[in-house]
Design brief:
With 236 residues, the chain is α/β, with parallel strands linked by helices. Helices cover 37% and strands 24% of the residues. It has two domains: 126 residues, Response regulator (Rossmann fold, 3-Layer(aba) Sandwich), CATH 3.40.50.2300; 96 residues, Winged helix-like DNA-binding domain superfamily/Winged helix DNA-binding domain (Arc Repressor Mutant, subunit A). A hairpin with a 4-residue loop joins strand 10 and strand 11. The two termini are 36 Å apart.
């Protein structure tokens, strides 16, 4: 399945953990894809500095781990670490680099990377490190009197466990990751339903309305707001 923003992002669908591999060398990219998919991850790819900039600009999806090559088309991808952090605050970043020095590792970790692996690397070690990063991902999101549990995919309100459908969970998670941020309808459609935006579809509105009713019924003190031609956001 290809996501929107043509030519920028391709996916090999596997499981719920979502990995973005950013690598400009075709053979190494293919090798990384093979390693990741064999470990049952859902793998997305990006093959240039420019494409990564575009992805960060439109935030076409969500990622749990980003495997980032240090040099992309001769440019230093570390320049984009602040933008990656802003666009995907919950993603863990693994940098791959041919420079194997303590100073290099310390510099990248200080700039926002979560882990660093020198080239050449062992595939089993890469998988192990990615799994460690996945275990370090945030387990819960809280706002007002509600808590969204990522591991059990459940909603807690005043101590009560509230069932959610998969799409309701993903929609609420997206909104709660950046409270107050306005998410355009097409961005929610692409991020939650992972399809190209369909201006005729009312699936976003329908799911938002169901979530609103559910939150009101259980006494949540947060609300999902919207503005015509702007988008949706969550606030207390």
């Amino acid at each position: 399945m290809n996501l929107t923003a043509p030519g920028m992002l391709s996916q090999i669908p596997m499981s719920s953990a979502r990995i973005l591999i950013v690598e400009d060398e075709a053979k190494l990219l293919a090798h990384l894809v093979s390693i990741m998919t064999s470990s049952l991850q859902s793998v997305f790819t990006c093959s240039s500095f420019k494409e990564l900039e575009q992805i960060l600009g439109v935030k076409v999806s969500r990622f749990d781990v980003i495997v980032l090559d240090r040099l992309l088309n001769g440019r230093d991808s570390a320049e984009l670490l602040p933008q990656i952090r802003e666009a995907y605050p919950d993603a863990r970043i693994m940098v791959l680099s041919a420079i194997d020095t303590s100073a290099e590792k310390a510099s990248l970790l200080n700039q926002g990377a979560d882990d660093y692996l020198a080239k050449p690397f062992d595939g089993e070690e890469l998988i192990a490190r990615v799994n460690v990063l996945l275990r370090r991902a945030p387990k819960a999101l809280s706002l007002g009197n509600i808590t969204l549990q990522a591991d059990t995919r459940s909603l807690m309100v005043n101590g009560k466990d509230i069932p959610l459908t998969n799409k309701e969970f993903l929609l609420l998670k997206t909104l709660m990751q950046v409270p107050g941020k306005v998410f355009p309808k097409n961005e929610l459609y692409e991020s939650v339903w992972e399809m190209a935006a369909d201006v005729e579809s009312n699936v976003v509105e329908a799911t938002v309305n169901k979530l609103r009713r559910r939150l009101e019924e259980v006494g949540a003190n947060v609300r999902i707001s919207n503005a015509r031609n702007a988008g949706y956001w969550i606030e207390v």
